[in-house]
Amino acid sequence: MHSDISEIIFSEEDILSRVQEMGAALTKDYADRADEGIVVISVLRGAAIFMADLVRAIDLPLEMDYMAVSSYGNGVKSSGVVRIIKDLSSDISGKHVIIAEDILDSGLTLQFLLENLATRNPASLEVVTLLRKMTKAQAEINCLYTGFECPDQFIVGYGLDYAERYRNLPYIGILKPEIYE
Fold first, then answer.
1. Running DSSP on this structure, what letter comes out for residue 145?
2. What is the reported pTM?
3. Which of 67, 98, 161, 164 is exposed most, by the fewest CB atoms within 10 A?
4. How far apart, in whole angstroms, are the C-alpha atoms of residue 44 and residue 67?
5. Domains plus CATH for the chain?
6. What gap in Å lies between CA 179 and CA 66, rounded to an integer?
7. Which sign does the torsion angle of CA 67, 136, 161, 130 carry?
8. Could you say which of 14, 29, 53, 105 is catalytic?
């Protein structure tokens, strides 16, 4: 796996340090709202690793839930067709919802998810993304916190995949083009 990576852009140490900072900021931001209920939602499968580390860095009572929303398939570009594969198990009405997203790329999937969740009457709805890809064609999405801005290249690791591989790399790196072309 490691030989398929052309360059490591965020080391394991960089990621864990930034996730700790984001968790501390969320603890401060939500300290006075914790009694109303906080639900952190992971968009499976990519964001599961990020969310696991993020929630351990938040020093408040919270609930975790998961959705699987897809617009990729096995391709390298978003198909633009979004579908819910697995919905939430929890009722988020009246609760403070934080979406833990792995990467904001085109933003199509996340835009769909935000619109869908807003209809469920949460007290608040925010996005925390580990990565924001520097692309010109990206939906307008405000993120409460962004871990890192990353180049518009095909990256994998720390939950990010290509055809379900590379998610278990502890760092984020650029996948060699010959692997996916």
1. E
2. 0.90
3. 164
4. 6
5. 12-151 (3.40.50.2020)
6. 30
7. negative
8. 105
